Amino acid sequence: MSNIYAVTGNEAVANALRQINPDVCAAYPITPQTDLMQRFASFVSDGLVDTEMILVESEHSAMSACVGASAAGGRAVTATSGPGLALMWEILFVASGMRLPILMPVVNRSLSAPLNIHGDHSDAMGARDSGWVQLWSENAQEAYDNTVQALLIAEHMDIRLPIMVCLDGFIISHSIERVEYLDDDIVKNFVGTYKPQNPLLDIQHPKSIGPLILPDLYTEYKRTQHEAMSKVKNIVLKTADDFAKISGRKYSLFETYRLDDAEIGIVILNSAAGTTKDVIDIYREKGIKVGLLKPRLFRPFPYEEIRETLQHLKALCVLDRCDSFGAFGPLYTEIASSLYLSENKPIMINKIYGLGGRDYMPEHAKIVIEELIEIANTGKVKLFKDYLGVRE
Amino acid sequence: MKLKGWKEITPGAVILEAGSSAEFKTGSWRAYKPVWIKENCIQCLFCWLYCPDMAIKVKDGKREEFDYDYCKGCGICALECPGKKGKKAIVMEEEGN
Amino acid sequence: MATPLSLKELSKKEILLSSGHRMCSGCGAPIVVKMVLLAADYPVIACSSTGCLEVSTCISHYTAWKIPWIHSAFENAAATLSGVETMYKSLKKQGKLNDDIKFIAFCGDGGTYDIGFQSLSGAMERGHDMLYICYDNGAYMNTGIQRSSATPLGADTTTCPAGTVIPGKQQQRKDLTKIMADHGIPYVAQASISNWSDLMKKVRKALEIKGPKFMNILAPCNRGWRSRNDDAVMLSRLAVETCYWPLYEIENGDIKITFKPKEKKPLNEFLKTQGRFRHLFSPENEWLLKKSQEDIDRNWERLLREEACVLGGQPAETTEADQ
Questions:
Q1: For residue A89, what is the nearest residue in chain C, using CA coordinates?
Q2: Is A392 within the bounds of a domain?
Q3: Yes or no, beta carbons of A223 and B6 under 8 Å apart
């Protein structure tokens, strides 16, 4: 029987969660994630999973319930979008500080005001310093594959950190694409059984979780989180290798497209990478040496590997699907940090695009490439940071 | 006490030893000290029950001496003590006298 | 077999809150925890919201808890504990766990009446098998005695100080116990450490009932109430005898008053022992004392009426819990 289906991103991720079969799932509706948890709830109602659902009264409680459930000693998952992630913000740090390997698909959405339910990256970028591992996904297939791989990274005994799998709201969550699923048994074996660490439910060994820590020790606990994060890269690569063996699909810390001999380049996250690749092909046919880098692991950020990959370029544009008002976009800042230690670094510009679900069209990629060609030729930059596709 | 380095602490700040606060002696907080007058004690155990600091030792259902390692000297035990024939079995005395 | 509710027998049990915690001298909150844990004859997992009890019982590598305990934040103890309880349910269903465990939250009034109210309401509505206990000291004591919605009328706090124009808190307390009863959960009770046997019976009854339970227990704070270090139990007793803090339970919607003072004492007897109410005894604030007494009387009469209603219009039987 074929494992190829025409499904939405939400459907694909919900199916991955079904195959993972978590012990507890907390859910609260928020567009565009709602449909993901609705689908998962039907798996619970139909007895296809062992999961107990907690239908909480807010995202704040969703993350709090996941903290309790994970600390208790089992697999806990939830999913959210935009304002829901913002409401969870305080508890995201609790989850990572307690070293709880909670899995959370984030169906990326903008933040109010003005109210907007559509896709951009303001939500997950706002949570980038929360101590969670972040995997980003271009399409439904990647969202499915990342979800299957996520727990192996989060639950690794050297890591024990919560993990977000990001996918673009509506553009991916609600569009039907071709997705190849793995067999249930294969995913079950791949994910393996959960190994609890200091579970609260072990009443023979009572533990206290969540103490007050004063300045004499707080820094040491934060240092342990830094240490765990420093080991994530290798575990992500190892997991990707193992995943390739069961799926034939290869993943890394980031994806490159026609970048090796490129003179100008674009860095872009998630769904807009696909559109950009098409436009790159058009320019390549014209003899323009342009390429692309699409980060997959955003936290921890693979600075060295990205430096090695981008430092040969003459000009580079980083496109951010959210703004850090009064500063460069968050992705730009990371890429700039990567390249700082390089002697011959490209000239870098930053474009803010696609906010609140604004379509990113091929002509937007063309504008960027034309500007990069000019910068590469003249060495002159008009504006280092600008909005793309905005009406005057 | 030597403070632990980051490689020596439990990830996630989990405390594995239950009741470890017993290492922390709160008796030094005391300004007033409860004194048990055994002959006035009817073993009602209200002092044991109401003590917020678990600082009254009991054995076989009977109270014994105060645990001055932890007693903060609040005086709840003395106030609640019914005593015997109007004579309190616990009185408070100023520390250091 | 449950331990008999005699102090002699109870004193043979290990108290599952250890000495060496850093609550203030004479604080009522650890007495609440101690009595609740003494009453429970089951393995218990506890959860606290951020607050005095939490920071004082679990700091650095010192924990006063001899049972599994978790704290995650201020406003989410009910949600956190619902996660623990649900994981328990899931693992038990899957045959990965056999223990029979009870789940108890211990949270202050700020974390219960105010910032944690949504989380509490949600957890109760969802029907988690847990007992949520509020130790109510009537203000944000941990941050330095700020007004909460549990602060009584007229009280002087650091955010509603008794000034020359505004004499302390201008609003009545929120009647949280009643609000919790209106959630339609199987068991709600109000208790006091002065009536220890009544308190323990309520805890035991609550733990035998499956589903969400709520108990509100008065926990005097001598710092915030500006009273003596030794009067936590005495003030609790006065609160009960003045009907400031009536003792009752609501089981499946039916109210039962578990203690009726033979002679209801004037509220002033409770108020005058506390510095937070001192300004009320100035002639210009007499109206506040009068209003406070009227509020207490009205509430007590309402409880009596509701109980009489349950008893089918018959006068309520007088019961007196152990002192």
A1: C73
A2: no
A3: yes
